[in-house]
Design a protein that fits this description.
about 15% strand, about 30% helix, about 200 residues, two-stranded antiparallel sheet, alpha+beta, four-stranded mixed sheet, 8 helices
């Protein structure tokens, strides 16, 4: 990702979430987008985010208590099982960050990002190797050919459409993605000098 940045981009620092090389409260806001599940020590990484945030920590994650959606439910249940183990629970987020506000983040039907749930209304996209290459969940599975063949067959036969026809009328879908916000314990104090 660093190599893809244009030369004119702001400076970037290579680090791990569990040991951020910044002073306490170095940033107004810390933002983590679909990354916590990749950290070796999630609690430590979350505590580091809170340490370097002056005002708040904002995290986009997936709630492991969520149902998932048709792709993981009908074709790749192994992804759902793995994600339930690796994504942080809301309890862990509360334990590490203190009080949190959790908002559902429904995904629009034309979502342009390439994460797992982005193509919920464009099922044929999951057959594209380039699309799957940008979705880390597929890299954790050994052999996905049988599931892809089943999806392709269901798309060609109309079985997918019959099973998921109600989705065609939806503008967005809640698949369990959550926006989690934690205010720094001192953020609301007028002088903001606590530690």
């Amino acid at each position: 990702m660093l190599r893809q940045r244009p030369a004119s981009a702001a400076p970037a620092v290579r680090a791990v979430a569990e040991a951020l090389p910044f002073h306490d409260r170095a940033f107004d806001v810390v933002l983590a987008i679909l990354t916590v599940h990749h950290w070796d020590d999630q609690r430590r990484g979350l505590e580091e985010c809170a340490r370097v945030a002056q005002d708040r920590v904002v995290i986009l994650t997936w709630d492991p208590d969520a149902e998932g959606f048709w792709l993981v439910r009908d074709y790749f249940p192994d992804i759902l099982a793995i994600d339930r183990r690796i994504f942080p629970s809301m309890e862990l987020l509360r334990a590490a960050l203190g009080p949190i506000e959790v908002q559902p983040l429904p995904i629009p039907r034309d979502c342009a990002d390439g994460f797992l749930g982005a193509y919920w209304l464009r099922p044929e996209a999951y057959l594209n190797e380039d699309v799957r290459a940008g979705i880390s969940a597929f890299s954790r599975l050994a052999n996905i050919d049988p599931q892809l063949e089943r999806l392709e067959h269901d798309l060609e036969s109309g079985a997918w459409e019959r099973r998921n026809a109600e989705l065609r009328h939806r503008a967005e879908l809640d698949m369990g993605y959550r926006l989690v916000m934690a205010k720094h314990r001192c953020a609301e104090l007028p002088n903001k000098r606590c530690s």
